[in-house]
């Protein structure tokens, strides 16, 4: 067993991998990718070399035992040096078990061979380890940053994980237009403009944008909608837009509103309110009561935004507040997001895999993973000292591009804010534990009703959606003990089933789903967050759907996956008269007030929602599709030019080669491509 070494730089860590310093195929292996380029198995000239290297760098074993894991680690230690870097432990399948960083790789990895000093959790990890991958870095700060990136990427089962599938929303004031637009934004911040956030939820953003529209009368419409207007829209009528699209305000006047909005969002709300009060007083003095009334309404909007702050954060500036609570082996964190002295919401986090991990270390890991997606503010307030806090500060400063300070408030407003965050963290954890107790009870009752061996840890729910067999889509949603696991939802475009054959569609979905499961994990060894096999399959349908699913799984040789079909009552309502169909033909019902019934209804409704959404999206794409999309080499610009010149796709099809050549932007070669596409048989 040897190590893989990629010399790194901070730019690679901050903005993406740059592994040109070593052979490309080894870098691909180190980063969990299929090797490519010369020297990979895809290149016949390098296939032999690749196989030799792969055999050298992999320790394979099918039996999880402690001795094999220690042997793999000791073999790795022999090749390590006392330099900073990141290590990954892999199991026999090549899946990542753990990602860690080290100031000295040799010393840190060697610790895992001292079994007596390891916790039970780490002993289990070592017993499953069969190989290691090593990446050296230039500094410990780079290693810490890379560790956070890889943990978010691989989600290893032995790392503390921040489970939060949703990205945080921002308010964006775009700058590419003469009349900037205010809008909600999620995801990568590629558009030019000013970003304000993060906000705790979309609801916080929507409420704030609505109030900002009343306060500053900024437009929220798209640029295409803006360019087509010849009269003001409804937002102007209800005094939530200044209608720059129809020149109800000039460019300088609108720019002044934008500047005021930027000041307000930057925390200078007092100055903005003072200016509005002065303007209102002047308008009243000039007997311009209509203008005075508009300014009065804008002042009320400013007061509403400030009054809606559930937390008094005046004087704090830009800061995030984190407090941790622990009880019953569970950990909860509460985060407050303060920008410009205004509270932009709060959110509770419940990290996983925290057993046998120090609370301060959990907080450190969560913070590093959190700021992988969100730009850090200048100040991060904490309720306790972090291990290696100086190192964490250096990493956050690198991510932010400016100095970031970790602080533990001792007195004043910041201390009161931290106490409030701590109370919220404890209360959120109490609610979480109570909900878990209720869910555990429902799980036990569900297992009893469905005659399962124990509460199901992974439930897969299936449904189809179509209109008379057209644009048919199959859907799978996944639920676990803590709720829906949305990053494991799947859609299936129906390819083979006959039109309007609902049973055939269900058979196709089941075959494709479980053929893949048999291929990926035939021995059913995968468990936890990467589980492939369900503990229960719930089908939205009746006897016919149940028979289709049962027969399909039997054809695949799968007879031990529990199945149940849920059919609506005689009136297809939610009156609680659902009938549950078992594979052996039996039927059961539940009392109308049963929590288990409500849980199963919720699962059924979620897959129904997801399937309908997928079907509608597919139908919408079909509406906007054009026959010209199928012609190779015809992009949006040429398609637009052809439609403008000929009028319809049908006329393009009927055009002669000479007519096609006369169209603007269409060369002789392109014209021949279009003509041959439609007249290939000739």
Structure overview:
A hairpin with a 5-residue loop joins strand 1 and strand 2 (96-102). The protein contains 23 helices and 19 strands. It is α+β, with helices and mostly antiparallel strands. Helix 17 (502-520) packs parallel to helix 18 (543-555). Strands 12, 13, 14, 15, 16, 17, 18 and 19 form an 8-stranded mixed sheet that branches.
Query: Please, how many helices?
Result: 23
Quantity of strands, as a count: 19
Q: What fraction strand?
A: 15-25%
Q: What integer is the average pLDDT?
A: 79
What structural class do you assign from the helix and strand content? alpha+beta
Please tell me how large the radius of gyration is.
30 Å
Distance, first to last CA? 63 Å
Bin the helical content: 40-55%
Shape: globular
Largest sheet: 8 strands, mixed
Poorly predicted spans: 1-63
Name a few traits of the molecule.
single chain, 682 residues, alpha+beta, 8-stranded mixed beta sheet, 5-stranded mixed beta sheet, 23 helices, 44% helix, globular, disordered N terminus
């Amino acid at each position: 067993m040897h190590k893989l070494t990629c010399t790194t730089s901070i730019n690679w860590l901050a903005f993406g991998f740059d592994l040109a310093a070593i052979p490309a195929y080894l870098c691909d292996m180190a980063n969990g990718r299929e090797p490519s380029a010369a020297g990979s198995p895809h290149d016949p000239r390098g296939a032999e070399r690749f196989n030799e290297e792969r055999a050298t760098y992999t320790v394979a074993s099918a039996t999880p035992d402690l001795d094999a894991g220690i042997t793999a680690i000791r073999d790795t230690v022999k090749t390590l040096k006392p330099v900073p870097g990141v290590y990954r432990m892999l199991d026999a399948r090549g899946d990542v078990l753990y990602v860690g960083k080290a100031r000295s790789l040799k010393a840190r990895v060697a610790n895992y061979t001292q079994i007596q000093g390891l916790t039970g959790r780490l002993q289990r990890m070592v017993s499953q380890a069969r190989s290691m991958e090593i990446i050296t870095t230039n500094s410990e700060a780079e290693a810490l940053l890379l560790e956070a990136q890889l943990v978010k990427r691989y989600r290893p089962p032995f790392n503390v994980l921040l489970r939060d599938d949703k990205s945080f929303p921002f308010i964006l004031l775009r700058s590419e237009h003469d009349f900037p637009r205010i809008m909600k934004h999620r995801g990568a911040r590629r558009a030019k403009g000013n970003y304000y956030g993060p906000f705790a939820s979309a609801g916080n953003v929507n409420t704030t944008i609505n109030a900002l529209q009343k306060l500053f009368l900024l437009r929220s419409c798209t640029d295409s909608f803006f360019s087509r207007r010849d009269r003001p829209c409804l937002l102007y009528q209800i005094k939530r837009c200044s209608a720059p699209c129809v020149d109800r305000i000039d460019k300088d006047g609108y720019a002044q509103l934008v500047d005021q909005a930027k000041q307000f969002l930057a925390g200078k709300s007092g100055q903005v309110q003072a200016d509005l009060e002065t303007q209102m007083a002047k308008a009243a003095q000039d007997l311009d009561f209509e203008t005075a009334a508009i300014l009065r309404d804008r002042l009320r909007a400013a007061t509403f935004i400030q009054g809606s702050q559930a937390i008094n954060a005046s004087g704090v500036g830009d800061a995030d507040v984190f407090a941790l609570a622990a009880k019953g082996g569970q950990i909860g964190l509460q985060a407050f997001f303060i920008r410009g002295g205004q509270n932009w919401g709060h959110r509770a986090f419940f990290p996983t895999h925290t057993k046998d991990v120090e609370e301060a270390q959990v907080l450190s890991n969560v913070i590093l993973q959190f700021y992988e997606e969100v730009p850090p503010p200048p100040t991060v307030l904490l309720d306790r000292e972090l291990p290696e806090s100086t190192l964490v500060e250096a990493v956050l400063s690198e991510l932010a591009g400016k100095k970031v300070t970790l602080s533990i408030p001792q007195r004043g407003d910041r201390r009161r804010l931290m106490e409030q965050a701590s109370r919220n963290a404890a209360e959120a954890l109490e609610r979480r534990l109570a909900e878990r107790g209720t869910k555990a009870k429902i799980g036990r009752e569900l297992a009893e009703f469905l005659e399962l061996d124990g509460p199901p840890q992974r439930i897969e729910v299936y449904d189809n959606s179509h209109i008379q067999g057209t644009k048919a889509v199959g859907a799978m949603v996944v639920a676990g003990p803590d709720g829906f696991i949305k990053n494991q939802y799947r859609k299936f475009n129906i390819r083979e089933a006959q039109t309007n054959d609902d049973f055939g569609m269900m058979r196709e979905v089941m075959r494709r789903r479980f053929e893949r499961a048999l291929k990926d994990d035939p021995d059913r060894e995968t468990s936890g967050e990467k589980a492939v096999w369900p503990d229960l399959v719930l089908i939205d349908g009746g006897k016919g759907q149940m028979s289709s699913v049962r027969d399909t799984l039997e054809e695949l040789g799968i007879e031990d996956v529990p199945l149940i079909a849920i059919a609506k009552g005689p009136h297809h309502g939610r009156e609680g008269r659902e009938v549950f169909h078992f594979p052996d033909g039996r039927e059961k019902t539940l009392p109308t007030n049963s929590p288990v019934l409500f849980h199963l209804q919720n699962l059924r409704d979620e897959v129904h929602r997801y399937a309908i959404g997928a079907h509608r999206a597919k139908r919408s794409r079909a509406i906007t599709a054009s026959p010209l999309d199928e012609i190779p080499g015809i992009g949006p610009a040429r398609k637009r030019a052809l439609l403008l010149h000929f009028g319809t796709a049908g006329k393009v099809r009927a055009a002669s080669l000479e007519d096609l050549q006369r169209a603007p932007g269409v060369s002789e070669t392109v014209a021949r491509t279009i003509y041959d596409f439609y007249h290939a048989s000739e």
